[in-house]
Predict the structure.
Amino acid sequence: MLDKIRNPAILPHPSPGAYFDLAIHIGFLIFVLALPFGNSTIVLYAGLTLALLGWIGRICRERKFEWKRTPLDIPVAIFLGLALVGSFFAPNPSSSSLGYFWKLLRAVLLFYAVIHSRLGERWRYMVVAFLLAGGLSTALGLWFYLNGTHMGVVRLFSVDARLQSDYSEKLPSVDWQQAFENNGRRLSQNASVSPSNKDAGWVITDEETSRKYIVRRSHEQLNVYYVEPRLAGTFKMPNDLGAYLVIAIPIAMGYLISAWRTRRQKDGRISIHWGWIVSLGLILCVMAANLALTLTRAAWVAVFFAAVYMAICFKRRLLWGLLILAVLSPFFMPQDVKDRFQTVWQRPSGFMSERPQWWKTSTQLIAKYPITGIGLGRFRHEYKLHGPPDMYHEPYHAHNIYLHIAVEQGIPSLLLFFWMLFLIFRRLFTLRKNGGFWRSGLYIGSSGFLISALIYGLADNILHQRPLLMFWFIIGIVFYVTSQSIENESETPFTKARLA
């Protein structure tokens, strides 16, 4: 040992390929840490680019292209091919953006990048980074809510040209009562107008109706937005935060259940991961608070059913905790959350807003283009053509992942999607054979996240933007970990002896 210290030349040095692997790992960590922060798009893409460059560099260094086969290879390839065909053979291809195909391809490439990342046991760092980023972003979300910032906004109308001429950069002298009436809305006479401290605009506060509006200038127009009592947190929209929590909460809950399980060591002692239990308990509390404040009912339902499933299958004592939480929640939840709950039974006609009409139009489009669909990114355009004349919203998607896939890519793509889900669940269940905190937590959390995401997909499109990347990244981790287990089990005693 002393000889090695005296002669550093004989100390082992990292191979050049190890630096490329390190670049991949750092890129993934940057990506995971940037996921819950809506304004970190550049950082997120920088992480993905670093991982891609590390992957390419390793291939060039080793002069070989390593490809690990998975059961998803064929269905994913066909799924991508049908998406591309649907875009080229759309009713009006010029309005079908291939950018949507690139977003889908990018997420699939992320899945394969994880599989070929050679993370080893360092995939655990990705899980830790995912949980820490989620806890930090939701803690900031609570701070934003207490300060009345980062709330959801909905565009109401634009002020017409005649009223815009009265606009002054120093003082908005528009007759706002008249402007609201011209657009079928009401503003009380006592409403006050003041400069916004958060952005370059104005705030209209109507204390009589307990409502707040924001006025912003854009493209020579004055746009009026309604400030919803819905938390957006570190995301741009409340629904984006809700979609993130639909995935993040089951993962955190899975590792909490795994930490809660008692394990008997070789010396007979019982070990419980109390540090993980406390840390994950705090993270889940702030995540649950953020979920409630988003007022996203589909996310509430999805996480609730996922939590019940996980409690019944893995830790039935949690059912008592869920019951106690449900009984006590009315005493400490904000009034906005209570009002949102009451819409389920007090105003059933407005519970799903215009979603039934979006779904009806979706089925009509599926019947008209059952094989190739209308093309990626064309839902809003086709809805304008086939939707009702008195439509209020012009949605970008069908607010249902199953209908949306069938509408834009055709029924064959929807069947392929179900096939891929079956293969994912089958691969995930192989983790049941492997004990230990990390793999057990991945199995419990990932099964809960899939159930939560698929239920949420009944009322919204979770497979878009960042949730799409999160979905395929977590699936990539699952396939990577299970492939390691399969490779270890396939090794014969003779092979293991040679490796030793």
In short: Confidence is low (pLDDT under 50) at residues 347-351, 491-500. The beta strands are 151-158, 192-195, 201-206, 211-218, 221-231, 263-264, 270-271.
